[in-house]
Amino acid sequence: MLRLDGVVLRFGGLVAVDNLSVEIKAESITALIGPNGAGKTTAFNLISGVYAPQAGDILFHDRSIARLRPHQVNEIGIARTYQNIHLFNGMNVLDNVLVGRHARTTCGIVHNLLRTRRQQVEEKKLAEKAYEILEFVGLAEKASEMAQNLPYGAQKKLEIARALASDPQLLLLDEPVAGMNAKEKSDVRDFILRIRERGKTILLVEHDMKIVMDMADVVYVMNYGKRIAAGTPEEVQRNPVVIEAYLGGE
After folding, report:
1. What ranges do the domains of the chain cover?
2. What pTM value is reported for the model?
């Protein structure tokens, strides 16, 4: 589904992503792991159109997306969450999900200004879809609450719900269980597995190795912008290069 071929991104003298190659199969969970500063989130930013690679290419269903803007990447079927929660705190839970649905709307500015019949029908369908997603993530009863009033774990789920609202084929999750307690982590793990069961493909950045090794089909390991290992969770855990990168010793 997605392929990074020799992708490079530099910030001045710093090579943030160095000749990175990754392949992601449809309906899989792929994890991208590595120490802090390894380049994982930068790789997400490249895939989602925040940055354009200075070398190499990014292919989605064999189509280059390396020069697309973030909204164009979302329109073709890729959505993401963020390491630090990015919600619209001044909006309620339902409206946050509706914002994520914008890429699948068809009414233009004229229909919305005039509140035409077509616009009203579409708005009703959007709300129904948003409620369906909120039920899936377990937040339907919170639909009218302000996003900023949700507990931390629920805010994380809401951000994933907003990403799902664009009906992506590929979902990028940046540290989805960071800062959660054991119960919240278990809930999100089960939730992510249910997303995959719905036919979605997931690329995951996460520091909780128990979660990663429990869920991922394939694990890629980065360090200093480079890919240093790839394989099944079992293979990666036994790889001496990976052990040294994480533990700093032989």
Report:
1. 1-77+169-186+196-250, 86-167
2. 0.90
